[in-house]
Write a structure and sequence with these properties.
It is a single chain. The chain is α+β, with helices and mostly antiparallel strands and 261 residues long. Helix content is 38%, strand content 31%. It is built from nine helices and twelve strands. Strand 11 and strand 12 form a beta hairpin. It is elongated and about 75 Å long.
């Protein structure tokens, strides 16, 4: 099986079935904070029957347990070696959307929330499938050439720039003066303002021994009129601005890994 879809109730049951009670309780508190124990028992019973209809559970010692081929899909949500979260801002509806992938060893699992976050879709994918999914997710103007650096800005100056633009304040930082003659910088400002400073993003996280996430890297994607901007961290406490390109995208998606995409 390469893909599963679980409702919130089914996912809570799956966590309980695998002894991941803390995760099940946390999910229950998010979606059903006022639910009593008797009500929880009822939805777990209903979820078990629903999963039985999907041929995803079997009876063992008078209990319904997940089938072996389903177990990895549940455990990867709870304990991965690394996670990449891609988020985008949809201008038309002024809403945010996201998808994630989790890695453990050589295995990759794509994780989406569907139907107003009521259904979890988890799919085992290849490196190529994963790359193509993330690439098409942002639907950028793709540059097939090796992307050169168009300009760079110190991290603190970029943060100040974002703050000023979001408040309609003209930036007076040294960065602005230094880049006045760089037409790429002016083009970027126009594109950023047109999106009300809303940027898409990719976060790369790894997990410590206590299974707590550590943010290791971040990049931003800004769809523009003539190009899609790819903004990544540089070596000098700065952000590097490039065209949306295969190379920097692979660098953050498959950080510290040998890939064959």
């Amino acid at each position: 099986m390469k893909s599963i879809q679980l409702s919130i109730e089914e996912l809570i049951f799956a966590f309980y079935s695998e002894g991941l009670y803390e995760q099940g309780i946390s999910l229950k508190e998010v979606y059903f904070p006022d639910m009593k124990d008797a009500e929880l028992k009822l939805i777990l019973e209903c979820a078990s029957r629903s999963l039985m209809a999907k041929n995803m559970v079997e009876e063992k010692d008078n209990l319904y347990k997940l089938k072996n081929e389903i177990v990895d899909f549940i455990h990867i949500i709870n304990h991965a070696e690394s996670t990449v979260k891609a988020s985008r801002f949809i201008l038309e509806s002024e809403t945010e959307d996201s998808l994630s992938y989790h890695r453990k060893g050589d295995s990759f699992y794509l994780h989406r929330l569907l139907y107003e976050q009521q259904v979890h879709q988890i799919s085992k994918v290849s490196e190529k499938e994963l790359f193509n999914t993330i690439n098409s997710y942002f639907d950028g103007n793709y540059d097939n050439e090796e992307s050169k650096v168009l300009f760079s800005i110190k991290i603190e100056e970029f943060e100040e720039l974002l703050g000023n633009l979001s408040q309609n304040i003209e930036s007076q930082t040294a960065t602005k003066e230094e880049l006045l003659e760089n037409h790429f910088y002016d083009e970027f400002l126009i594109d950023l303002k047109s999106r009300n400073c809303k940027m898409d993003s990719i976060l790369y996280m790894e997990y410590d021994k206590e299974n707590m996430p550590d943010l290791m890297d971040v990049c931003f994607i800004i769809p523009g009129k003539d190009r899609t901007w790819f903004v990544s961290r540089g070596p000098e406490n700065d952000y590097i601005f490039q065209n949306w390109n295969q190379r920097p995208l692979k660098d953050i998606l498959f950080k510290n890994q040998s890939i064959s995409v």
